[in-house]
Amino acid sequence: MTTIKNLKKPLSAFQYYIQEWKKLTDEEKEKFQQMALLDKQRYDNEKNEIFRKQEEEILKKNIYLTAYIGGYSAVGLDNGAKSYETVGPICNIINYSEEEQQKWGVKVKAYEYYDKNYNIKMTLHHNEKYYKYTQYGDSKKKGTNVYTHGKTYNAKKDNGHNPNPRKYQISNNKKAGITTTHYTSFSNNTYETNY
After folding, report:
1. Are residues 105 and 156 both part of a single domain?
2. Cα separation of 105 and 109, whole Å?
3. How far is residue 66's CA from residue 85's CA, in Å, rounded to a whole number?
4. What's residue 76's pLDDT?
5. In this predicted model, what pLDDT tens digit does every residue of 47-68 receive, in sequence order?
6. Would you state the pLDDT for residue 104?
7. pTM (predicted TM-score)
8. Residue 119 domain flag
9. What's the pLDDT score for residue 129?
10. What is residue 186's predicted lDDT score, i.e. its pLDDT?
11. 162 and 131 co-located in one domain
12. 75 within a domain of the structure (yes/no)
């Protein structure tokens, strides 16, 4: 006796279409494959144009980030120096969700910019581990928001003369590169070198 469980289920129109597609020769399929390829190229071109326009708008904001990268103490007539690296302009901003913004106290999850030396897109991530470290065990205390190339942080490897990792923050400096401020012991004057 045949039961309902043993009945062959009906095929959908799409399943019939798939069966017919499998019967087509490679030559017959080629027309449709070319149409799909052209449509993918159209999609990629339109997507890239949207990204390009978004980048242009963000670049107009002229956002740069700067990090202290180290220094040295007095040597002879030289009274020491401090160096800073500035990157930018920022070409893309990736925001946190509203819930994450409340948690971290910042809107931006990551900044992207084109490295001037290699012309490749680089990313600076909001370092959540550094934020937690600077809460000093008190989860209600506000931590320090910085952006780093990696997402890790190890306090044992970090020191004042050679920060590791470099910790970037929004900057007034609108010129990418490394700036070193030199202090002289024989006057209150300082001078800068840039590269």
Report:
1. yes
2. 11
3. 5
4. 61
5. 999 989 999 999 999 999 999 9
6. 92
7. 0.75
8. yes
9. 94
10. 66
11. yes
12. yes
Residue type, 126: H
Q: Whole domain around residue 189: which residue ranges?
A: 62-194
Per-residue pLDDT reduced to its tens digit, 73-122: 766 656 778 889 999 999 999 999 999 999 999 999 999 999 877 689 99
Let me know if residue 177 belongs to a domain: yes
**145 in the same domain as 66:** yes
Q: Do 127 and 114 belong to one domain?
A: yes
- Give 11-74 as a DSSP string: PPHHHHHHHHHHHS-HHHHHHHHHHHHHHHHHHHHHHHHHHHHHHHHHHHT--EEEEEEEEE--
Torsion sign over Cα 160, 162, 165, 169: positive
183 and 90 assigned to the same domain: yes
Residues 6+ apart with CB under 8 A from 162: 70
- Exposure b/e, 95-108, CB count within 10 A at least 16 = b: ebeeeeeeebeeeb
Residue 45 has a pLDDT of 94
26 and 116 in a single domain? The answer is: no
CA separation, residue 51 to residues 47, 61, 119, 123 (Å): 6, 16, 17, 16
* Residues 140, 71 share a domain: yes
